[in-house]
Amino acid sequence: MDEEKERLQKVIAQAGLASRRGAEELITTGRVEVNQEIVRTLGTKVGPHDHVSVDGVPIEEREKLVYYLLNKPRGVVTTNHDEKNRHTVVDLLSDVSQRVYPVGRLDYDTTGALLLTNDGTLANELMHPKKRVNKAYLAKVKGLATEEQIQPLRQGVVIDGRKTAPAKVAISRWDHTKNTSMITITIHEGRNHQVKEMLAKVGLPVIKLTRQRYAFLDLVGLQPGEYRALKHDEVKRLKEGNYRNLRRK
Ligand code: URA
């Protein structure tokens, strides 16, 4: 019956495989088949008896796209499988059945905001240097930091022969008895151990590091080891490239 039929892009979006716009793109780029035939026409109607597949895989067999924000605790590795059999961030998402991957990496001893998803397209986009996704860190460092010390980080410092992009950096606190300082630093690059190396370069070795924010996603309501699914609107903003933090502290 015709009333049971739905627009193809709606069916794909409802299966959780893409946003409505993403589904349209899948169709127009020839990745969608209906009853074994490629369909590139938007608005094609399909019913319950039509076989819809994307990249050759029937939509009912494809995994729903899921997005989680984890407050990574210390002592877990940011990978899906660790050769040394250490705990991984993926082990922490105990009630997630989909095979998700971390977007980028936090060191074993770094805590904080880490995104995990099975949406490879979005993950690649977010990790692309051109996208300049801001990551805000709070670092506890050795020594009483001075403005003169942190100033070079605002211009960029050379690490492994390459200058870092200008960072936003400020001293937020000193602990005179313990001889330590708290530094906030925001970068958009994602080089290995970047924050630790940048701070070490200006004579402020990192004792503890937390990522407080990834794009606009912060740790409010999440204790270390806890995670939550992203809200529909948050996923939408990430897909649209709208990474700004609206709740600026
Ligand atoms: N920079 C670091 O040095 N370590 C991290 O885990 C993240 C950024």
TrEMBL record:
Residue ranges annotated for the RNA-binding S4 domain, each copy included: 6-63
Gene Ontology molecular-function annotations: 23S rRNA pseudouridine(2605) synthase activity
Major enzyme class: isomerase
InterPro entries: PsdUridine_s_RsuA/RluB/E/F_cat (IPR042092), PsdUridine_synth_cat_dom_sf (IPR020103), PsdUridine_synth_RsuA/RluA (IPR006145), PsdUridine_synth_RsuA/RluB/E/F (IPR000748), PsdUridine_synth_RsuA/RluB_CS (IPR018496), RsuA_PseudoU_synthase (IPR050343), S4_RNA-bd (IPR002942), S4_RNA-bd_sf (IPR036986)
SMART domains: S4
Assigned EC number: 5.4.99.-
Keywords attached to this entry: Isomerase, RNA-binding
Keyword rRNA processing: no
Family: Belongs to the pseudouridine synthase RsuA family.
PANTHER family the UniProt entry points to: PSEUDOURIDINE SYNTHASE FAMILY PROTEIN-RELATED, RNA-BINDING S4 DOMAIN-CONTAINING PROTEIN
The protein's name: Pseudouridine synthase
